[in-house]
Amino acid sequence: MGNISLMTVESASMGEMLAAAVPMVRTLNLEFVEVTPERAVLRLPDQPDFHNHIGGPHAGAMFTLAESASGAIVLKAFGDQLSRAVPLAVRAEIDYKKLAMGPVTATATLRRPAAEVIAELDAGGRPEFPVGIAIQREDGAITGEMTVVWTLRLNG
Fold first, then answer.
1. Pairwise CA distance, residues 106 & 52, whole Å
2. Terminal alpha carbon distance of the chain
3. What is the mean pLDDT of residues 57-81?
4. What pLDDT is recorded for position 15?
5. DSSP 8-state symbol, 51
6. Between the CA of residue 7 and those of 13, 22, 71, 77, 127, what are the distances in Å?
7. Parallel/antiparallel/unpaired status of strands 40-44 and 85-96
8. Mean pLDDT for all residues in the chain
9. How far apart are CA 149 and CA 129, in angstroms?
10. Whole-angstrom distance, CA of residue 84 vs CA of residue 28
11. Is 103 a residue whose pLDDT tops 70?
């Protein structure tokens, strides 16, 4: 995330920021469909180079898609805190529910109010907060669900 501190959330698109800071975003050609402080939607195009043994997106590619969606919402929701804190993923859990074929999207949402997280940071704490992500096929079927727990670590 070191490269992100050189930019502001306002001066570059979220896709450009994450592609600069996280090379896997570029490698997988992730597309940023929507990024707001309430929701982030990223798309993984159907790419044979990232298929598994049955022709769908590889589990690792879907994990990276979902984790990247969680990172996008974290940066959007807490971008104004980057001068004093760095966001870090603490842990993640993913459940693969149905066969994914073709392009898939990941929709991330914060599961703790941003104001509450910032208040804990202001009080000198190191807040942890979950981000929930649903992974879907184009037909709308949920193929996976992931939770990434993030923290904001004060600089210094």
1. 18
2. 15
3. 96
4. 73
5. B
6. 10, 14, 15, 15, 23
7. unpaired
8. 90
9. 5
10. 30
11. yes
